[in-house]
């Protein structure tokens, strides 16, 4: 682990850090439920800063995958979903298979926020999770090491979640903090209070670009620019579809002057991030190592997410050869996840079942 990126920091009460830095484990592919490889990769992953063709392809991709288009042909949409669900069955239906695969291993939970723990809403500042979901996640964290991995900045997602017992990886994993106390699953290990920020040098540049994008997007009704500390989100969920290409062009015109930043596409959002090699998958790996689970034979990571950025985590599990990825979606998506859930309510049902399963196992050992 590159120590120059691990910075000692004082954080506010309730968000002190307790991340233990460990050596990178060897890649031994064990304890993992295989992923069906996607048969095609039509989704546009990376928008180049230059190229009109790329922007047009992105707009076409968004239109083709939008729910409104799917509704225009119900029979075709149903047929496509039926085919997709065969390759990505419901994690609720396959619950027993998942927990059977985890026996003898420590389950570690990784959860995206928007669209996973909370519904997708028009105003990203109002993406509140329900009280029942919060209670469920709190119980989950008492049973298993648990982390929120999100594109949001840590402060914002912490204000939504308000659970001090979790690990938080914000800005797509470029800002990682731990719980307020040494994690109980590693109570026999020493820990040091640290914050992991591999892109700290980009902060002035991110702020500068944010200000420019706010100005540029003012003339596009419905556009919203969000500063997530180590990345910027340009939301176009409330933008007229005819204006998508125009908005993308505005974003591109700003980024032409910043070759150290890259542009990617999320769920009706454009993401501006540093070009460093870091994503949600690498954040997952860092957290596993930091928690002390260096032995691939004794850990079973479960990652639940709904967006393209979560694919980096799904692929990391596949590459490590362990655990399961669960895609949250009501519509077919190219994904490296093994299983699916349709919406946050199903995510909550799955987490509740996991907590109940753990409680039953714990009582049976007494």
From TrEMBL:
One annotated GO biological process: trehalose biosynthetic process
EC number annotated for this UniProt entry: 3.1.3.12
Hydrolase among keywords: yes
Matching SUPFAM superfamilies: HAD-like
Cofactor(s) it depends on: a divalent metal cation
Pfam families noted in UniProt: Trehalose_PPase
Domain of life: Eukaryota
Reactions mediated catalytically: alpha,alpha-trehalose 6-phosphate + H2O = alpha,alpha-trehalose + phosphate
Record carries keyword Hydrolase: yes
Gene3D superfamilies named among the record's database cross-references: HAD superfamily/HAD-like (3.40.50.1000)
GO terms for MF: trehalose-phosphatase activity
Pathway of action: Glycan biosynthesis; trehalose biosynthesis
Key words, A-Z: Hydrolase, Stress response
Entry similarity comment: Belongs to the trehalose phosphatase family.
Protein function: Removes the phosphate from trehalose 6-phosphate to produce free trehalose. Trehalose accumulation in plant may improve abiotic stress tolerance.
NCBIfam families: HAD-SF-IIB, T6PP
Entry protein name: Trehalose 6-phosphate phosphatase
Provenance organism: Lupinus albus (White lupine)
């Amino acid at each position: 682990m590159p120590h120059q990126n691990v910075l000692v920091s004082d954080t506010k009460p309730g968000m002190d850090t307790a991340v233990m830095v460990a050596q990178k484990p060897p890649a031994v592919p064990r304890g993992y439920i295989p992923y069906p490889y996607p048969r095609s990769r039509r989704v546009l992953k990376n928008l180049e800063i230059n190229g009109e063709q790329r922007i047009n392809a992105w707009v076409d991709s968004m239109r083709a995958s939008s729910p409104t288009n799917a509704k225009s042909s119900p029979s075709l949409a149903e047929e496509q979903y039926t085919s997709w669900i065969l390759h990505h069955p419901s994690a609720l239906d396959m619950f027993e298979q998942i927990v059977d695969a985890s026996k003898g291993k420590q389950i570690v939970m990784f959860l995206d926020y928007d669209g996973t723990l909370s519904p997708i809403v028009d105003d990203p500042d109002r993406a509140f999770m329900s009280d029942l979901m919060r209670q469920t996640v709190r119980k989950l964290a008492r049973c298993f090491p648990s982390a929120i991995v999100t594109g949001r900045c840590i402060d914002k997602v912490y204000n939504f979640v308000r659970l001090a017992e979790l690990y938080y990886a914000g800005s797509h994993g470029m800002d990682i903090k731990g719980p307020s106390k040494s994690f109980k699953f590693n109570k026999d290990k020493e820990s040091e209070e640290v914050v992991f920020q591999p892109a700290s040098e980009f902060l002035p540049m991110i702020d500068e670009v944010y200000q420019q994008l706010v100005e540029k997007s003012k003339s596009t009704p419905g556009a919203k620019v969000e500063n997530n500390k180590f990345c910027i989100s340009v939301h176009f969920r409330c933008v007229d579809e005819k204006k998508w290409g125009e908005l993308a062009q505005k974003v591109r015109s700003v980024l032409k002057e910043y070759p150290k930043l890259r542009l990617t596409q999320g769920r009706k959002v454009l993401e501006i991030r540093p070009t460093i090699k870091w994503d949600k998958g690498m954040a997952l790996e860092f957290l596993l190592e930091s928690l002390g689970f260096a032995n691939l034979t004794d850990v079973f990571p479960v990652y639940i997410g709904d967006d393209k950025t979560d694919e980096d985590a799904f692929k990391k599990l596949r590459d490590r050869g362990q655990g399961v990825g669960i895609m949250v979606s009501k519509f077919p998506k190219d994904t490296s996840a093994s299983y699916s859930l349709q919406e946050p309510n199903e995510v909550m049902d799955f987490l509740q079942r996991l907590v109940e399963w753990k409680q039953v196992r714990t009582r049976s050992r007494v």
